Amino acid sequence: MPSLKSQFKNDFNQMFKYNTPKHTATPEERKSTIYSKTTRDNYIQCTNRFVDYLRNNNIKVHTKADAVKYVPAYLRNQIGDPNRSAWSVHQSASALAKAYGCKSSDFGVNLPKRAAADIRRGRTETPYAKHFSEAKHSDVVNFCKSTGLRRNELEHIKPSDVVKDKNGNYIVKVPGTYAKGGRDRSVLVYNADSKIMQSAIKTIEKAKTEGREHIIGKVSKACVPHNYRSDYAKSLYSKYERPIDTLKPSEIYQCRKGNYNAYDKQAVDKVTQALGHNRLNVTVTNYLNK
Q1: How far apart are CA 145 and CA 34, in angstroms?
Q2: CA 30/CA 23 separation, integer angstroms
Q3: 28-37, 106-115, 201-210, 248-257 — which is least confidently predicted?
């Protein structure tokens, strides 16, 4: 019999559908399918930690079916761990729910509320970041600021993935095979600072001229691409925004909970699509309000 870690891993590998669009799937298909390699890998890590918890507590189980009854206690342990954020706990719950074909609420544990201020992964300085020179890697930094790509996307984008539209704008066609959520999307290469944008375009053209396989390729651990997504989001929003006082109430995204900023809902939607998200509130909270 495969080890418990292998059982979870094998199930996630079977759920992973390479190059399959998520947005065309039925609700039932989504329950049993993983569309992103990154999500699959993260879920495997989450279940590995669950198995480690069982071992560290001398809980001997050999099958997934036997292990499920220990999930509530594990999640409560995660909630009580000061090194685990609410976001991390929710990810663990989602991974285990996916593995068992249920909802995270079915485990009977009140998960902590998530707040944008608590987001740590990819947005804060790591020990590696202290050794990263933006000046020496300005080509990578400017490309990030002009595309808003995630690390995995950044490392896999090829020169052939970039096209020009009828107006001469550079468009990155991000394949769902390495995009979060497994959904293809188009990203306008843009930054409000023309020098930054021209630097990004120069990087693209140089990669094409030199016949590189990837535009950027492997990204140093010291670089945190997620830090630059907010730069891109704000720049792109500034390109599309309309004066708030000219909009109807239904066209305005009004912030709440002590933050009363107002945004052009249409512009926010365009930014949301470019970032690879689905909800406007995620874009406003995590990127535009930063």
Answers
A1: 29
A2: 9
A3: 28-37
Tokens matching residue 191: 């930054």
Angle, alpha carbons 209-214-215 (nearest 5°): 65
CB 8 within 8 A of CB 52: no
Sheet of 185-188: strand order equals 162-164, 170-174, 185-188
Task: Please tell me the distance from the alpha carbon of residue 79 to that of residue 86, in angstroms, as a whole number.
Answer: 7
First CA to last CA distance, the chain: 49
Give phi and psi for 177, each to the nearest 5. -60, -30
Structure tokens given for 96: 């285990």
Q: Where are the beta strands (DSSP E) in 91-217?
A: 162-164, 170-174, 185-188
H or E element: which one contains 52? helix 37-56
Residue carrying the six token digits 């918890």: 53
Dihedral sign of CA atoms 46, 48, 54, 58 in order: negative
Q: What is the pLDDT of residues 54-84, one digit of tens each?
A: 999 999 999 999 999 999 999 999 998 888 8
User: What is the DSSP pairing of strand 162-164 with strand 262-264?
Assistant: unpaired
- Rounded to two decimals, what is the model's pTM? 0.64
Alpha-carbon distance of 166 to 62, in angstroms, equals 59
Q: Across the chain, where does the E strand assignment appear?
A: 162-164, 170-174, 185-188, 252-254, 262-264
- Residue in 59, 57, 118, 124 with CA at minimum distance from that of residue 91: 118
What does the block give as tokens for 139?
A: 């080509």
* Amino acid identity at 202: K
At residue 64, φ and ψ (nearest 5 deg) are -60, -40
Name the residue type at position 1. M
Please tell me what DSSP assigns to residue 81: -
Rounded Cα distance between 80 and 78, Å, is 5
Q: Which residue from 208, 207, 232 is spatially nearest to 141, judged by alpha carbons? A: 232
